[in-house]
Write a structure and sequence with these properties.
Blueprint lengths: L11 E10 L2 E6 L2 E2 L5 E2 L2 E8 L2 E6 L4 E4 L3 E5 L5 E9 L7 E7 L2 E7 L3 E9 H12 L6 H18 L15 E7 L2 E7 L10 E2 L16 H9 L3 E5 L2 E2 L4 E2 L37 H9 L11 H7 L12 E7 H12 L6 E9 L5 E8 L3 E5 L1 H7 L10 E5 L2 E2 L2 E2 L1 E7 L7 E2 H9 L4 H8 L4 E4 L15
Parallel strand pairs: 1-15, 14-22, 18-27
Antiparallel strand pairs: 1-12, 2-5, 2-9, 3-4, 3-8, 5-6, 6-7, 8-11, 9-10, 11-12, 13-14, 16-17, 16-28, 19-26, 20-21, 21-22, 23-26, 24-25
């Protein structure tokens, strides 16, 4: 495969902020100009879908109709805009609404004549300054912020054309198989940037958290982006699809456990600590691992470290390394019927069919009185077994008291927060607090990868292939 040459210009990207039926409120903080050259003054505005057109009304009165949408560009660098009621943490346990402020341009489009889509057009490095302080607190260690700037930049460039085509394996859209099994159903899904036809990347956890300039509240954030400007991870001359999650639970996972059946050497199963541990190959291995609290970088209860790295809405989640959830028969009935439209009757047992090397379930069969259902991959398992999402699919199950052979409930004992692929954010934060540099952090989580300066100089790799 060919290597990378130097990129001349910093890319501009389109970030999907919110899609909404009904009014979309926004505030211009400073003057903006539309594509006809008209200047829109600072103030409050409201947009509505009018068929294929967008109708915008100012709080001061009057309305404009735009057949192909509205596109506003800031007149000065000081001009920003606020979008009202942006939903963050969609479907997760921290879901909430926020008013968020953004730099760059604003585009509003009517989608299928029913809803409005707000898009932020912004330079890549400006986007990254928000991402690293939205994913992690801006009070985080500078080495962690530098590491996160590099992987967030790498992940983005690996997803969007024309850079996407440089990957060894292209990213696949959502995959769904739903087929009959003996006395049951098999449903396997994975989710990977599907539905993003009008923009490059969304603003929530589905892609990367991007919460605007309101998150960039300390100079250390912009310094981390400036210090690593244009740097991206590479492997074998290709931009790395640098995935990351909140807590790996002590062992990172390979790509194919969460997404399509393709793997990258730099996204491997590895112990999140000093030395190494073998992969978990059996149910006994997984049970021993998950029911214990082995030492690892992300096994921390240091409140000072956690308060410095976790945004405020993540801080209530304290049981990320090891956790447990009880599911009653009533709750399982609700989840399976509402999530999958399947009523298998009372659940008799959970049957793990396939696990990844970190213990994460990839295929799980629920055996019911009337039929069974097989679920995969990891995010679908997490989605089906929770009204939001389970923290991870690395769990083992203990049945409760049985009445007439039917357990009253099941307790799930789990490990980690997220898919576990690539960088472990809490583990990386602990490494930074212990004095590891951003290069050492990246070498730990993306083994064999190197760093390229896309905007400035040529590829720099050590003789061992580690990040240099």
């Amino acid at each position: 495969m060919g290597g990378w040459g130097m990129m001349i210009d910093e890319p501009r990207i389109r970030v999907g902020l919110v899609e909404r039926r009904g009014p979309l409120g926004f505030v211009l903080r400073g003057p903006f100009a539309d594509e006809q050259g008209r200047v829109w003054p600072a103030g409050d505005y409201s947009a509505l879908a009018a068929g294929a057109a967008v109708q915008v009304s100012a709080a001061a009165g009057g309305a404009d109709l735009f057949n192909i949408g509205l596109r506003l560009s800031p007149v000065s660098e000081a001009s920003t805009f606020v979008v009202r009621g942006v939903v963050i943490g969609i479907s997760f346990h921290w879901q909430q609404e926020q008013d968020q402020e953004f730099a760059g341009g604003l585009q509003i489009r009517a989608i299928a004549g029913e809803s409005l889509l707000a898009i932020n057009e912004v330079p890549l490095e400006t986007y990254l300054a928000s991402v690293i302080s939205s994913e992690m607190s801006s009070l985080s260690n500078p080495e962690l912020l530098r590491a996160h700037a590099i992987i967030s930049r790498s992940w983005l460039l690996a997803q969007i054309a024309p850079w996407r085509d440089q990957l060894l394996q292209p990213t696949a859209p959502t995959n769904l198989t739903s087929e009959a099994e003996t006395n049951g159903r098999r449903i396997v899904r994975w989710y990977d940037r599907e539905g993003h036809d009008h923009f490059d990347v969304c603003a929530d956890d589905h892609c990367q958290r991007y919460q605007g300039v309101t998150r960039i509240d300390l100079p250390v954030v912009t310094e981390a982006v400036c210090d690593t400007r244009g740097m991206a991870l590479v492997f074998d001359g290709q931009i790395c699809d640098a995935r990351f999650s909140k807590s790996c639970g002590g062992m990172t996972e390979r790509f194919s456990s969460a997404w399509q059946d393709a793997d990258y050497p730099y996204l491997s199963v590895a112990f999140d600590g000093l030395g190494s541990l073998p992969e978990l190959h059996s149910e006994d291995d997984a049970r021993r691992w998950i029911r214990q609290r082995p030492p690892a970088y992300c096994n921390t209860e240091d409140r000072e470290v956690l308060q410095r790295i976790l945004p405020s809405f993540d801080q209530p989640t304290t049981d990320f390394y090891r956790w447990q959830v009880r599911l009653s028969q009533e709750e399982l009935h609700y989840l399976l019927t509402s999530r999958l439209g399947i009523d298998p009757g009372s659940i008799l047992r959970f049957e793990p069919l396939r696990r990844g090397g970190s213990g994460r379930l990839i295929l799980l069969r629920l055996v019911g009185e009337r039929q069974s259902v097989t679920i995969g991959k990891e995010l679908e398992i997490r989605r089906v077994l929770s009204r939001t999402h389970l923290y991870s699919s690395a769990f083992v199950v203990e049945p409760g008291k049985a009445v007439d052979g039917i357990p009253e409930d099941f307790t799930l004992y789990g490990a980690g927060w997220g898919h576990g692929v690539g960088l472990c954010q809490i583990g990386a934060a602990v490494m930074a607090a212990r004095g590891f540099s951003f290069r050492q952090i990246l070498a730990h989580y993306y083994r064999g990868a190197g760093i390229i300066d896309l905007y400035r100089t040529s590829l720099r790799l050590s003789s061992s292939g580690d990040a240099t």
